[in-house]
Structures are given as structure tokens and as C-alpha cells.
Amino acid sequence: MSGLDALGIPGGEALREALTNCSDPLGAIEEFQSENGVLLPSLRPALPFLDLHGVRRLEFHESILEELREKLVNGISDLANSNREDKIKKLEELLVKSFPVIKVKTVRPVVMNILKHLPQIKEEYLTQILDDKELYTEAATEVKRQIWQDNQALFGDEVSPLLQQYIAEKENSLLSHENSALSFFLPMPKVRRQSEVVQKLVHMIGKNVKLYDMVLQFLRTLFLRTRNTHYCTLRAELLMAIHDLEVNEICSVDPCHKFTWCVDACIRERIVNTNRSRELQGFLDGIKKGQEFVLGDLSMILCDPYALNTIAQSAMKVLLYCVSSETLPRENHDLQLLVRMIALGLGAWNMIDNQVFREPKQESQLFTKFIPCIVGMVVDDQIRAVSTKLEEGSCGIRPPSELYSICIKLSPIASLFAMYYALHVARYKDRVAVTQILPTLIHCENDRAYDDIFLHSLISHLIHMVDDFAMSEEFCSAVFDDFLLVGLSKENVLRHMLRLLWHIHHRLSQTRLENLMETVHPNNELSEAVRTTYQQLSEKINTYSPSPVAQPEKLDSPLMSVPAPTPAVPDRM
Predict the structure, then answer these.
(1) Which residues of 373-405 are buried (b: 16+ CB within 10 A; e: fewer)?
(2) Rounded CA separation 28/22 (Å)
(3) Do residues 189 and 219 lie in contact, with contact meaning Cβ atoms separated by under 8 Å?
(4) Looking at residue 10, what is its pLDDT?
(5) N-terminal to C-terminal alpha carbon distance within the chain
(6) What is the pLDDT of residue 521?
(7) Which of 76, 139, 425, 435 has its CA 20 to 30 A from that of 219?
(8) Residue 571 domain flag
(9) Together in a domain, 162 and 308
(10) What are the CB-based long-range contacts (under 8 Å, 24+) for 362-369?
């Protein structure tokens, strides 16, 4: 109980001094006990009974202390939650009296509870807590917020492990090889933002606008440093989690709030419909002069893979509508807005890095030549599907034009359209179209087709085309030789390929499987995760045994030997 001296209560030092200077130690101890024990006259006659039962005075006093501490903590919480006008003043008065004993562990919870309920703590108290590691560790988040808002480096140290955990969880969900049905885009937005990391960050921020701005700055910096678009996802999820809690102090000052809210609704509905398009266009067109910097944050929201996937999927649906309605893509206003948002999302990194806040300029040939080329490929797919059903045979397809190849090499938007067209035909298990389109994706701008998020979706669709790997060597060659093996120098491509082999190895020819396993054999420079997955895959292949073919059941019946009756021949007229 050292530390009570600050309140004028004799502690260990006073007892030591009394014992040093006395002639009767037992008398000095008894006198100290009577002066500093529980000063209730009615209690004194009862103390000898405790002695008879072997209850030490220390145990008795500790039990009394625990009871009083609990009542104090509850009383402080009740005061803080009351409607009394003078509650803050009362709490501050209690803090002045109790703070000197904050280092006494047994009464520290009382002091910490007072601090927790004070909206503004004096700097001298915060400094003492910050200087003592033990006090800082035990302080409530409400107290730490007031320390963090003036100490960005310390706040960064607290936030950094959570950001690393978030990125690790996202990457693990993309690269996990065991569940073929797992879709990265399947969870609803509201479910995703209930994750441990997002909720911890929301709690750390509370209603503190300054801390919220710090987190956004961390996310921008990390996005610039790593180009990892998962930081854009966290930027959107964090704002919407705060929106769910109705923290108006933050939502009202974030200029991206309503725009993010609208994008979140589109992700939830899995489409950007016409009404949402008008809302989003209104936000983009409504940016006032002098506030162009808002485009930086809006572009991060649109760079979120979940948002970009919803927008790109919506664009493909518009193209299908153009085919069915026989209208030109360039005349479709919804498609124009979708391309505009795709351009903002894909240009987010450059915009924030260069600090030039204006929308990327669209090339006219994107609408007049490239997108019509994609539409033409869709039409060819539909014609081939009908021809195959009518003629019971396959129909040849035209290879993509030279313009197509040039556009996907130079334009990120064209690359994205080509990639989502590939996902479209893979989703519908169009083996011929997949065989045709996949080899062209190696030319996508900035190796965009080897991005984890696209590969995850593509591999998920290819896994469901498992029978096509056994039926067509040309299809196998397009998937492996002309696409995946071309990018195998990238570790992430190797991991996605291992995921594909995990689910379709039994449908590959023995020769191809052996060659692929030899090609993807990891060296010591690759991560432990790759080597472990490869080892598990090898064991799975070696222990695989095909399901036995069901034999028709033999019928042991005397009726089997009876000849079947001859059908009657109708009389001819």
C-alpha cells in the first residue's frame, strides 16, 4: 500500500520508522493497527473473533477494501451517467483527491474509472500516465484517446499491428486453397465491417475527429507505399462502421460520407442501378471549385476491390443489355458513368501520389472502338451457343482484333473490361471463349491480370469447369501454358495455380500433371506457405483414389428368365 503517504495516510515507511524508534515493538504495532484500521467502534469487539477463526487482519482489510472499491467504481459510473449538471465538476474533485494514489494497485481501478469518464483530462495527469508504462497499459481507451490525439507516433504504433492483421486476413482469404466455394466477394458489407480489426479501430477512434483523420492519413500513406488496394477497402469499411454507430461528429465532417454510403448500397445490392448512378453522378458533378482534393478520397473509395468489382460487373451487365436491345454502348449514360468511376478507381494511386486532383481524361476510342469490340465478342459467344445447340457441333470463333491487343496493353480500363469479360465467359463455363480470351490477358497493362483479386475470382470459376480439363487439351494448354505458367515467376501466381491444381488434379492427364508438379516445385527462396501448400498437394495427389463406379445391382428373380412379349403389329389400312 505504498503511496498512501501522499494523502497523509501512514504507510510502510511510517511503520518502519515507528518500529525503529520504539522500545516496545508489539505495542507499536498494536498502536499502528488501532490508529489505521477500520475506525468503527462497533467493530473492535468483533476483531478478536476473527483472530480465533484464524482470519488474518490483512485478509479482513483486503476484503473490506475490495467491497469499498467496487461500491466506489459503481458510484462513479452512476454519477458519470446521471443527468446532474455538476457531474464533471464532482468527478474532477474526486480525481484531485485520488490521483496521488494511482500507483497503488488496489485503489488504481477507482482512479482509472474517474479518468475514463472525464471528457477533458488535465495535461499533467496525461503526462504521468504516459511516462509510466504500467499505468498506460491499464488506462482505458477513453483515456488513451486524449493521449493519442497529441502523439501521432504513439497512436501509429498502436494502430500498426491492427492494419497488418487486416491485410494478412484479406490476403489469406484470397490465397486459401482448401475451399473451392469460397468467394472473396461473397460477404455482405455490413458483415465485413463487423470484423475484429475494424471494430477495434472504431473503438480506438470513438468520436475523436483528430484520431479519425490520423487513421485516414495512415491508410493513404500505406496505400502509396505498397499499392495494396485492401487499404482502400479499410478506408470505406471504417467510415461505414462509424456510420452504423451514428457517430455524427465524424460522419458530418467527412466529405466522402454520403458518396461512400451510396457505393456501399451498390455493393450490397451487387449492382449499380440507374437510380444509384444518378446519385453517384450528382456527388461527382457537385464537387465545388477549391474542394477538388475530395477526389483523392473518392478515388480511394472507388479503388476498393469490392466497389470496383461491383462497378465492373454492372458494366458487363450494361453491355449485355446493349446486345439484347441492339443499342450502341456509347449512347448508354449508365455505362459512361460506370467507366468514369472505373477510371477514378484505377487512377487513385496516381492522383494521391501526384496530388493532382482531377478526373482522368477518357480516350474516345474506348467507347467508339474497344468496347464495341468486347460487345462483338459477346455476340459471337451467343451465336456460337445457338449454333452448337442447333447443329450439335462447335462453331469457330474470330480471334480478338489487333486493336483489342493494343488497347489492353496501354489502357487500364480496357484491361479491366477484358478481364471481366474473361470472368463472364468462365462463369457461364464457355470453354471455347475461355480458351480464346485467357492467352490474351498476359498483355494486360501493368500485368493487371496477375493481380490476386482477379486471379482468385478466375480460379474459382475454373475450378467449376473441372470436367473441361479432362475433355479438352486445348483448354488445358490455354489455362496453364498460355496464361498461368507465363506469370509463374510471381509467387502469388504460383499460389493461385496450386489452388487450382488442388481441386482439378484428378481430371488432368498423368503426363500433364507430372509436368506441372515438376514445374511448380518450390525452391528455398519461396515462402513457407508455398512450400507447405505444395507438400500438402503432393500428398493429396499421391493418396488420391477415384470413387468406384457403381455397378448395376443383379436381380435374382425367376421373372428374369421369362421372355418379353412381342409387341403387336398394327393392321395396315
Answers:
(1) bbbebbebbeebeeeeeeeeeeeebeebeeebe
(2) 7
(3) no
(4) 63
(5) 120
(6) 93
(7) 139
(8) no
(9) yes
(10) 363/411, 365/403, 365/407, 366/339, 366/407, 366/411, 366/413, 366/414, 367/329, 367/330, 367/336, 367/339, 368/330, 369/403, 369/407
Convert the pLDDT of each residue in 353-386 to its tens digit.
Answer: 999 999 988 888 899 999 999 999 999 999 888 8
Q: Which residue has the cell 515438376?
A: 518
Give the tens place of pLDDT for each residue, 238-282.
999 999 999 999 999 999 999 999 999 999 999 999 999 999 999
Angle, helices 402-410 vs 371-391, to 10°: value is 130
Least Cα distance to 302 among 274, 280, 278, 276 occurs for: 280
Non-local CB neighbours of 208 within 8 Å, separated by 6+ positions: 145, 149
Residue 553 grid cell: 445391382
Domain endpoint, select from 337, 354, 371: 354
* Same domain (yes/no): 128, 162: no
- Examine the pLDDT at 573 and tell me if it is beyond 50: no
| Structural domain span for residue 196 | 156-354
Convert 115-131 to b/e letters by CB count within 10 Å (16 or more is b). Answer: bbbbeebeeebbeebbe
Q: Does one domain contain both 92 and 202?
A: no
Place of cell 500438402: 536
CATH code: domain of residue 403: 1.25.40
pLDDT above 70 (res 329): yes
Tell me, yes or no, whether 503 and 387 share the same domain.
yes
pLDDT, residue 46, reads: 67
Residues 304 and 428 in one domain: no
Q: What is the pLDDT of residue 394?
A: 52
Cell numbers that stand for 323 in this block: 446486345
Question: CA dihedral defined by 413, 422, 263, 213, rounded to 10 degrees?
Answer: -60
Q: Rounded CA gap, 182 and 500, in Å?
A: 13
3-state SS, residue 225: helix
Assess if residue 200 is contained within a domain. Answer: yes
Instruction: For cell 451514428, name the residue.
Output: 246
Question: Average pLDDT over the chain, rounded to whole?
Answer: 88
Count how many domains the chain has: 3
